[in-house]
Amino acid sequence: MSETKIDKKIRRIHAMERKWWHNKVAYQIYPKSFYDSNGDGIGDLPGITLKLDYLKELGVDIVWISPIYSSPFADQGYDISDYYQIDPCFGTMDDMDHLLKEAKKRDMYILMDLVVNHCSDEHEWFEKACEDPDGEYGNFFYIEDRKEGELPCNWRSYFGGPVWEPLPGHPDKQYMHVFHKKQPDLNWENPKVREEVYKNINWWLDKGLGGFRIDAIINIKKKLPYKDYTVDRDDNLSCIDQMLADAKGVGEFLGEMRDKTFKPHNAFTVGEVFNEKDEELPDFIGDGGYFSSMFDFSTTFSSMFDFAGTSFGKSDKGWYANTRITPDDYKKCCFHSQKRIGSIGFLSNIIENHDEPRGVSYYIPEGECSDQSKKMLATLYFMLRGLPFIYQGQEIGMENLGVIPFEKVDDVSALDQYHVAIEAGYSEEEALKIISLYNRDNARTPVQWNAGTNAGFTTGTPWLMVNPNYTQINVESQLHDDHSVLSYYKKLIALRKDPAYQETIVYGDVIPYLEDTHNLMAYYRKGDKTLLVIGNYQTQEQTIALPAPYKSVLLNNYNDVVLNGNEVTLHGYQALILEL
Ligand code: GLC
Ligand code: CA
């Protein structure tokens, strides 16, 4: 019998080197907001350990914890002042060792956040650089002479304003920060910096970490010598993406880092990558790539998912000029991204994280959030090929905060974008509404554990406001309700792990079905079995033809399937996973 095209493709996919993490499910913890064990209003490491059984029961294997290192928290821990210490607000190194031990007992893997594009201005390296800019540590950063009214280049930092800031104590000098001014960029061109970074990575891996999520890593390669790019806002600056697209050679750093750290430890790594070109994908996440997997963060429509899904409709001008993604756009983004990656490697699929709006408030059209639509969105992204990540609270369908008073806004990027909107002529009220959709606080409010005081997150005063909807949306009320969003996530995870379907769900092809049908997202998963995933992405019913009779319904967010011959009439936001 001759091999069909599909068989050939499946054989090729199956030839891909298998990794221990391929069939896993990952979960992101934003530690400040996860669970507070000691009543100081801040989530902590013992709090995570206390909830490991909850995560295990959900079906989670890999847990990524956003930064817990010593930090002045100018950017919520993404500004690290000591890479070898746990910040006291999260606990102690003993707490960390205990967490690692407890995770191991449960066959779970802990990932830390690796933030090495920059450190904190309170890190001793930077303090020493300020003491003696011409000495050894001056070369750990990008420090330039400063002349009034002139900048070495016109790059805009991610949080607004130029990337240049006067060096404390040296008015004649300035340093570069592509993020906040309290996050000076580390000079990766300096081999000593790289050596220090690798030493730290190995130190943590030796402790028994499963690996890292790698922060903002594409920024480590700067275009040198400095040059200006096209001005794209009234501030006379240029979006940093232009520089990044022009900077060549990041691969040399990434390959070296892999060889000296992750590879010898067989560690799992997921890079926060953007700007990569199609032909570079095998280098990034192919067999033996720089990373095991990546969140794909392209800002263009042509290459996206994950962050990029939310980057769809993103404007260089600022949040006020963004356009909202529609169900059809979302479908296009997902399929494009799946096609682009093919069998090269495994993307890490998300609908939200600590930098994004709550997925259900963003990908489901306004006013249409319901348990059904939340379950449908969960089905559509979770069944794609790749490693699914769940962000804390997503599994119970946590939603955006909505519009909050200016004094309550904590996120540095939202504060910046508020001013960008005001400068563009919006009123204060309008500006608040604009930032409410993307404000990073949306995803950072405390996890809603129960309907009690502060949603059961803390007995003290929470560091960030609790979403007032916690009385309706919380873990406790969903745990024993078979129809809850939480129970649905458990079923989705269980299906991915079911030995009968695992091969198909983990390694099978994704092939769109009825791709052009409006407000419908449907695709096959083809491996040793054939599954059909269907989502009616609207409140109205919709009738579609099935390609073949189905053998069984593996998952359904309604109680029934309305069949008429080979046609199925889908309820509003109905999701189905069928075995054909
Ligand atoms: C990443 C993080 C974000 C942080 C930034 C700077 O994008 O996810 O939270 O602000 O890097 O470290
Ligand atoms: Ca605490």
pLDDT average, as an integer? 93
Low-confidence stretches: 298-310
Beta percentage is 15-25%
> Globular, elongated, flat, extended or rod-shaped: what is the shape?
globular
Folded structure, characterized:
By secondary structure, this protein is of the alpha/beta class. Helix content is 31%, strand content 18%. The two termini are 23 Å apart. The structure holds alpha-D-glucopyranose and calcium ion.
Layout of strands and helices, then pairs:
Layout lengths: L4 H11 L10 E4 L15 H6 L1 H7 L3 E4 L3 E2 L11 E5 L6 H13 L3 E6 L9 H8 L11 E3 L9 E2 L7 E4 L2 E7 L14 H16 L4 E4 L23 E2 H7 L3 H16 L2 E6 L7 H5 L7 E4 L10 H5 L15 H15 L4 E4 L9 H5 L7 H12 L4 E5 L20 H12 L4 H11 L2 H4 L30 H5 L5 H13 L4 H6 L1 E5 L6 E7 L3 E7 L5 E4 L6 E5 L5 E3 L2 E4 L4 E5 L1
Parallel strand pairs: 1-2, 1-15, 2-5, 5-10, 7-11, 10-12, 12-13, 13-14, 14-15
Antiparallel strand pairs: 3-4, 6-9, 8-9, 16-17, 17-18, 18-23, 19-22, 20-23, 21-22
